[in-house]
């Protein structure tokens, strides 16, 4: 009987390296190649040596020479073949263990012994206990108590509302709003990566939600929207579908949610309660499940807080709700306060009407409202804020309910954009969409160069190839797609250029733009609905916090080649952020670099960047090497002493990518590149934070200036 080889993933990597090496390999060389510590290598080697005996090969260790695997050519070949087909014992990183523990605790109804967790994670019970200690603050934040009872095990205590909230938060830790939109969207991309993305998302959803029912839930929600002449925004729609899917799964598991009787009574008085009841009845019939009245109440709350637009309602219906009259009166109040005419701005009236329909419900039901931009709005636009506050006092009198400052801040955003629109004449511009393989550093750099070379071009968005079709749909009409990656599109012109624009690229873009009709920026394009605006700006803020908290520097790194420097970069990232598997990150960096790199020859500076599932947060690292490296890139061969490493999670939302892209976009500035390459690290850190901060202000400011 042919022997079977059972190794963990680290041991398989080590053995494969030794079997393919033409000469003995030292522990230090192996550690550098695989991104592991020498101590870890020594521990894993003991397990490898024992398992090689049945295969007729021996692990040889020679002091001062290195390690090798000795045996016949046939035996070595058989062993390599076994490596390719034998299953790996999964080694979980601390971060992976954390996520798995969260999922197990939230879904287990009974106490679980530490031995269960330790066998599931292949670690000691002491490690599990330590992991649980680190997990307690996260659970406490969600009002969940972690209970440990000797002889019984570990379990959580919390009400169902808190458990569901924790599940939703955990889901969004893995998946961005953009990814969930991709999965729930009606259009499909022509790229094979879309299928991989959908499978990844479905795997995450499987932990708390049955993906098989999502399509049925979507059908019910969409048909219900059509009957009522209502269309939710994308973000509200995704949140609503995920809420219902989770509720159904929990009900199937026998977990019911409770609601305060007084609160339920107020919800029943809302017209949305009947809408929620109708959807609950359809869900019950389609999914063969009983949905109690408490669940209907929570569905109603989601409908009341959802942002959308009424597409079939008559003026009379809207007046019954009061929103139309309120919107018109509030616009007149702001006009009087600011001495401006706003009544001819259809974008303001439409957006304010949509906002008020949801806001009135939130105010009447005293729902908690959060506005992370409140302080910024008050300080930067005091006149507009005061005018909005006066309009809100009118609304408060009409509703006989307090309008919180957070809501006033949102109203000020609407009025602020309208005020600037009255003072701004939009130039006639070509509409260009930028694309690259990742949507991160390369396209942002390209955007900065095109903005300098073509002032008459309006860059509507910068996206990865994976999200190209969605961007075309969102920003239509598009005059031209400019990409750093060769591809063809069925309906749109594509111009392929270098990451650093060359004269040939500029001429090529000019040739394609010549003769195209100019399209003016419309009021619709100049204004974003308030909910999406706040979510967008909030994600920009998250990106700033992640980046400024994860700026790292290293000096005197050793590497003899570009390949070794990439391995060193991955190893450094793994050393400063626990849980990053260096070999995986190295592979992702190499794969991205094959698509084209960026080198600033004058500053001896190169940029490495990628989006990777190995990376948990946005990171920027400045790495200086002891000796110059020969850095070959398409059309370039330069000496490099400094590497700017920009990393983002694969699931990072678009706004996070744009914030890290602010750094790469600055490489066209000679002073910035020189600072990164040669200045003391404290000055580099100060410069990077300045660039990130300025990028944040520029990007969030567009929501008040009214134009992109």
From TrEMBL:
PTS EIIB type-2 domain: residues covered: 430-521
Pfam families tied to this protein: HTH_11, PRD, PTS_EIIA_2
Sample GO molecular function, one term: protein-N(PI)-phosphohistidine-sugar phosphotransferase activity
Protein name: Uncharacterized protein
Source organism phylogeny: Bacteria, Bacillati, Bacillota, Bacilli, Bacillales
Database matches in SUPFAM superfamilies: Phoshotransferase/anion transport protein (SSF55804), PTS system IIB component-like (SSF52794), PTS-regulatory domain, PRD (SSF63520)
Chain ranges of the PRD domain: 208-313, 318-425
Alphabetized InterPro entries for the sequence: BglG_antiterminators, HTH_11, PRD, PRD_sf, PTrfase/Anion_transptr, PTS_EIIA_type-2_dom, PTS_EIIB-like_sf, PTS_EIIB_2
PROSITE patterns in alphabetical order: PRD_2, PTS_EIIA_TYPE_2, PTS_EIIB_TYPE_2
UniProt keyword annotation of Transferase present: yes
Biological source species: Paenibacillus elgii
UniProt KW keywords: Repeat, Transcription, Transcription regulation, Transferase
All residue ranges annotated as the PTS EIIA type-2 domain in the record: 546-695
GO biological process, one term: phosphoenolpyruvate-dependent sugar phosphotransferase system
């Amino acid at each position: 009987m042919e022997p079977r080889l059972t190794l963990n993933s680290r041991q398989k990597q080590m053995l494969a390296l030794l079997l393919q090496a033409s000469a003995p390999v030292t522990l230090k060389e192996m550690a550098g190649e695989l991104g592991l510590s020498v101590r870890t290598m020594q521990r894993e080697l003991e397990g490898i040596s024992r398992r090689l005996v049945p295969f007729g090969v021996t692990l040889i260790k020679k002091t001062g020479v290195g390690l090798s695997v000795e045996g016949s050519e046939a035996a070595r070949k058989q062993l390599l073949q076994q490596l390719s087909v034998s299953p790996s014992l999964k080694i979980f990183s601390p971060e992976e263990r954390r996520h798995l523990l969260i999922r197990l605790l939230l879904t287990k109804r009974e106490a679980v012994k530490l031995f269960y967790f330790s066998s599931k994670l292949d670690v000691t019970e002491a490690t599990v206990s330590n992991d649980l200690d680190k997990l307690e603050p996260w659970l406490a934040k969600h009002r969940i108590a972690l209970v440990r009872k000797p002889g019984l095990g570990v379990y959580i205590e919390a009400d169902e509302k808190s458990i569901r909230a924790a599940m939703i938060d955990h889901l969004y830790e893995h998946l961005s709003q953009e990814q969930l939109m991709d999965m729930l969207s009606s259009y499909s991309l022509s790229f094979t990566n879309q299928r991989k993305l959908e499978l990844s998302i479905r795997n995450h959803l499987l932990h708390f939600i049955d993906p098989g029912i999502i399509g049925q839930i979507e059908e019910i929600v969409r048909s219900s929207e059509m009957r009522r002449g209502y269309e939710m925004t994308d973000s509200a729609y995704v949140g609503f579908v995920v809420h219902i899917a989770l509720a159904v799964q929990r009900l199937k598991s026998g977990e019911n949610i409770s609601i305060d009787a007084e609160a339920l009574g107020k919800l029943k008085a809302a017209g949305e309660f009947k809408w929620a009841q109708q959807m609950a009845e359809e869900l019950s019939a389609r999914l063969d499940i009983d949905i109690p009245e408490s669940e209907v109440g929570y569905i109603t709350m989601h409908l009341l807080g959802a942002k959308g637009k009424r597409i079939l309602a008559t003026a009379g219906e809207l007046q019954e709700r009061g929103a139309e009259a309120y919107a018109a009166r509030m616009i007149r109040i702001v006009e009087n306060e600011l001495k401006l005419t706003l009544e001819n701005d259809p974008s303001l009236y439409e957006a304010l009407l949509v906002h008020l329909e949801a806001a009135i419900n939130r105010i009447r039901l005293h729902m908690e409202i959060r506005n992370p931009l409140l302080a910024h709005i008050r300080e930067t636009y005091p006149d507009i804020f005061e005018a909005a506050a006066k309009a809100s006092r009118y609304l408060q009198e009409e509703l006989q309910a307090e309008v919180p400052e957070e809501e006033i801040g949102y109203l000020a955003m609407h009025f602020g954009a309208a005020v600037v629109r009255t003072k701004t004449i939009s130039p006639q511009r070509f509409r260009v969409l930028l694309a690259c393989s990742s949507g991160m550093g390369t396209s942002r750099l390209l955007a900065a160069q095109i903005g300098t070379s073509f002032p008459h071009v309006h860059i509507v968005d910068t996206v990865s190839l994976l999200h190209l079709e969605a961007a075309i749909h969102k920003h239509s009409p598009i005059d031209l797609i400019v990409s750093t990656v060769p591809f063809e599109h069925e309906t749109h012109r594509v111009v392929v250029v270098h990451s650093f624009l060359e004269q040939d690229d500029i001429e090529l873009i000019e040739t394609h733009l010549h003769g195209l009709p100019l399209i003016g920026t419309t009021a619709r394009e100049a204004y974003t609905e308030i909910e999406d605006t706040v979510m967008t700006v909030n994600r920009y803020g998250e990106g700033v916090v992640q980046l400024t908290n994860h700026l790292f520097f290293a000096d005197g790194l050793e590497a003899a080649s570009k390949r070794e420097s990439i391995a060193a970069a991955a190893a450094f990232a793994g050393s400063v952020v626990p849980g990053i598997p260096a070999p995986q990150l190295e592979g992702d960096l190499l794969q991205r670099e094959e698509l084209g790199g960026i080198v600033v020859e004058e500053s001896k500076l190169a940029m490495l960047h990628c989006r990777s599932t190995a990376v948990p947060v946005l990171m920027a690292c400045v790495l200086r090497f002891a000796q110059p490296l020969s850095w070959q890139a398409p059309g370039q061969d330069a000496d490099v002493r400094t590497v700017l490493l920009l990393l983002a999670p694969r699931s990072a939302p678009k706004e996070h990518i744009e914030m890290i892209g602010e750094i790469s976009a600055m490489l066209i500035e000679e002073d910035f590149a020189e600072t990164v390459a040669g200045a003391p690290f404290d000055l580099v850190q100060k410069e990077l934070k300045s660039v990130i901060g300025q990028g944040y202000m520029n990007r969030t400011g567009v929501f008040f200036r009214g134009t992109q």
